[in-house]
Amino acid sequence: MSRSGRVAFTAMKEVVFGIPAAQAISEVVTKSDASRVFLMASGTLNRTTDEIAKIRDAIGNRLAAEFSEVPPHTPRSAVIAAADIARQANADLIISVGGGSVTDAAKAVQLCLSNDIRHPDGLDQLRPVKNSDGTIGPPPCTPPTVRQISIPTTLSGGDFSGISGVTDERTKTKELFRHPLIIPATVILDPAITVHTPEWLWLSTGIRAVDHCVEGICSAEAHAYGDAQALQGLTLLAQGLPRVKANPDDRDARLDCQLGTWLSMGPLASGVPMGASHGIGYVLGAQFDIPHGHTSCIMLPAVMRWNQPANAQRQSLVATAMGKAGADAADVLDGFIAALDMPRSLSGVGIGREQFPAIAQGAMATPWVPRNPRPIAGPEAVQEILELAA
C-alpha cells in the first residue's frame, strides 16, 4: 500500500439515494439555474417503460431537447449527434438516464459543447496528455460549463468519475477522455428505476463494479482512503448481487448494489489506477463488442491468478471482504461469478486463441495494463493472462 500520495476531491456536488428518480429530478432542477434541459435517455427504457415519461414530466417546461440513440460502447458518432442537438437547443443542463454508454456519452457531450467539436475526428484534439509529473490529464481546452445530472440504471460506475470512455470507430479502440468537470454534478440512485434493467446486464455490470473494487484494492498504488471505500463497496456488492439474483424485486438489495457501486469508484476517483482486467476489457469491448460487464466476469479471476505472486496479501483483503477469509481470492471471485450464471471464459463468448495476439497488442496500448500491480513487460505476458481465461 502506498504511504504517500495525493487525493484530489471531485467536482461532484451530491449523491441522492433511495428517492424516486422523478421526485429527485424535480427537486434538483428546481434548485438549479437551468432553463433549457437536454435529456439523454436509454432508448429501451424510453420505448418500453413509462420511466422516461415520468422524468420528462418532472423536468416540465424546462425540457429543451432529447436524445435516446446511444449504442453500446459509446461510439464517437453518437456523441457528436447528441452534441449537435444539445447545441441547437442551447442546452444549459444535461440529464442522463441509462447505463454506462449513455452516461459516458453525456460526459463527452459536455466537452464537445465547450470546445465546439462538430465532427468525430474533432475528438482527437481532446485526447489526454501526460503532465510534467507523469500523471494523465486533459489537454489544454475550454472547461465544460454545461453540467450533468446522472440517473444510472446499471452498476458500471462511470457516473462517479471524470473519465468518459468513447469508442473510435476508425480503429475500434476505446479511448478515455478526461476532465475534472465532466463528472456529473449530481447522481441520483433510485433502485425502483433499475427493475427494468435485464438481469444479465444488472448482474454483469455488478461484476464490473466488483472489478473496480478489486483492482483498486489490489493495486500497487492503493491507499487507505481508496481501501476504505472499495472494501465496504465490495462487501455490499457481494451481499447484494445474489439477493437480486434470488429476488429481482428486492429494492433494498438493489440499493445496496448501487451504494456498493458508488463506493467501488473510490480508488479510481482518488487516483488509484485499474489493472489488466480493465485494460484487456477495453479491447474485448471495442474490438469484439463484448459487454463491459462480461469482460470483467471473464478476465478478473484470470488477472488475479496471474497477479497473485505480486500481491497475495492485498488479494487476501478481497476474500475477507467477500466473506471468505483465508480462501484464494481468484477462486472466490470465480465461484461468485459462476453462481450468478455469468460467462467465465473467452471461448464462452466466441474468442479463440487465434485472436489472442491482437488482443494482447491492443491491451498494451491501454492506460491500465502498464500500471498492473505485477509488471507486464509486453504482449507475451498479456497472452499468459488470456490463456488463463481461455
What's the short story on this structure?
With 390 residues, the protein is α/β, with parallel strands linked by helices. The chain folds into 2 domains: 14-192, 3-Layer(aba) Sandwich (Rossmann fold), CATH 3.40.50.1970; 198-388, Dehydroquinate synthase-like - alpha domain (Dehydroquinate synthase-like, alpha domain). It has helices spanning 21-31, 43-48, 51-59, 76-88, 100-114, 199-218, 224-246, 251-264, 266-269, 276-288, 292-321, 329-339, 356-364, 379-388, and strands spanning 14-17, 37-41, 63-67, 93-98, 129-130, 136-137, 148-152, 163-168, 173-178, 186-189.
Helix-strand blueprint:
Blueprint: E1 14-17, H1 21-31, E2 37-41, H2 43-48, H3 51-59, E3 63-67, H4 76-88, E4 93-98, H5 100-114, E5 129-130, E6 136-137, E7 148-152, E8 163-168, E9 173-178, E10 186-189, H6 199-218, H7 224-246, H8 251-264, H9 266-269, H10 276-288, H11 292-321, H12 329-339, H13 356-364, H14 379-388
Parallel strand pairs: 1-10, 2-3, 2-4, 4-7, 7-10
Antiparallel strand pairs: 5-6, 8-9
